[in-house]
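Consider the record:
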Amino acid sequence: MLVWTVCVALIACGVLFRHSSFLQDVQFVLAKIKVRRFVLKCMRTNYSILDRFLELVETQPHKPFVYFKDETFTYREADVLSNKVARAFLQAGCVKEGDTVALFLGNQPMFLWLWLGLVKIGCAGALLNSNIRSKSLLHCLNCSGATTLVAAEELLDAVKEVLPHLHEQQITVFILADRCEITGVESFIDKMNQASSEPIPKELRSHLTMQSPAAYIYTSGTTGLPKAALITHSRVWTMSLLLPSSGVNSKDVIYDTLPLYHSTGLLVFTGAIERGIPVVLRSKFSASQFWDDCRKYNVTVIQYIGEIMRYLCNTPQKLSDKNHKVRLAIGNGIRADVWRDFVRRFGEIQIREFYGATEGNFALLNYSSKMGALGRHTFLHKMCFPYAVIKYDIDKEEPLRDSSGFCMEVDKGEPGLLVTEITAKAPFIGYVRDLNQTEKKKLHNVFKEGDLYFNTGDLLRIDEDNFMYFHDRVGDTFRWKGENVATAEVADILALADCVKEANVYGVKVPGQEGRAGMAAVTLRDGLKFDSTAVFKHVEDFLPSYARPRFMRIQESLDITGTFKLIKTKVVEQGFNPNDITDPLYFLNEKEKNYTPLTPDVFDSVISGDIKI
């Protein structure tokens, strides 16, 4: 009611006519309030996304739910298969209500049947990254407290590597195969095929509430071991409602190429259930087959992350580029230049860029189609969903505080740390079995004694028109020559150089120097060599002196996560020593106006201070 009162007052004052985005701003806030009320209603009635799925099984049993390769699974068939999964677990006697089962497999329909089957018997799924191995695999298992592991047959070698540790911890291990000859590993497909497909009694999940775990989703681990974020059943609803908030309707068909173990991949399916629509699932993203899939399945909505859009724009142009039915793209991380190229080439597809974190309590949506923006900063949004962009000390890696000990908001155009208030309506649950990391994400006494905010770890800036933009991740931004260097911005500039395909920018310690010197690990475009003179000229033209990478490393490929996030830990640790690195290394040689080879002699001169950087 308060929101409406304020809106009416502003309209009466003429604000509506001075700001063309005002109506959109109000509609966005009201839509978020509607989502919050719906989730609260679900919490009161204990109505989960599974309940919605079972309704659809009754009302539209023959409607396609999943398209995968040449197979089509209807809502009824998905129900039957997930029933068989649930009964296979129960008959094996290894899973009881409230348990957690770790799922270790790539994108395939079985992933969904397993998760739905677990929810039907009141259990949660720990969604393991199918690329992790050894220490990381054991770490993620321990985080979740899983008592059972189900792994894809092609991941058997990864399981065998840690099998003695799994046996020590008394974890039951299943492989998605008809038979398995390895001691201590049971097959699962045969058990599932022999199980009944009868509906699962609701009593088996009667203990569940909307605060019960539905899944554990792991952070990408770009700067360390992954952390397990607890996803409750109410959180599943909040994530699922992104699709209708972005304009997805009940007639759409949505395409998902992102890993199901990640929130961005899974929310497509739970969101599709909310809408009652089909999902086209692909085992792995393919730029060359992306549009062929969209045409084959009559896709109308695609989901993206920024790198996907860039990969699509880098494919050879075809006459059929605009021959498709895609009308809407939902995702995050698209750069303004890629956005512009994408719509120019593939047609006037409406792009809905959103911002949010798996474990976070806040979200933004670019409902204005402002290229490059995450959303808008408005007093209505801030009033109903309290947040702030505050001054941040890059060197100390902590917020700046005034003489009273409170944080200060940034000025327009100045990058700062996004923080969001933690309340009963906007909770931060934290990381499972990791109290230390959970506490690190909390900020106390931000604007007054006793308040509590979530530290997003993201640096954002707000322009004069109140549009919000991503600047960099905390820890990625580093300080050099008394200036803050945003790695994301430098990487974007480097990627515009003719010979550079991708860039991973980071800071490295140099003895005797304050801060960290910029370094970039880059890959080259097919068929091109590193044009050192041209790259030097490029960074000189487009980057201030302090932001120009002092060192350049040429790699065959960059280390990335399953969702294409660059992994910096390894390259930062390796530094720029040519005695330890076999990749070609170059040094920013300002005297010769070139990137020249970083030989052991040059390295020694930099370390000793004979060469000034």
In short: Confidence is low (pLDDT under 50) at residues 8-18. The domain at 46-62+75-232 is CATH 3.40.50.980 (Rossmann fold). The CA atoms of residues 25 and 584 lie 50 Å apart.
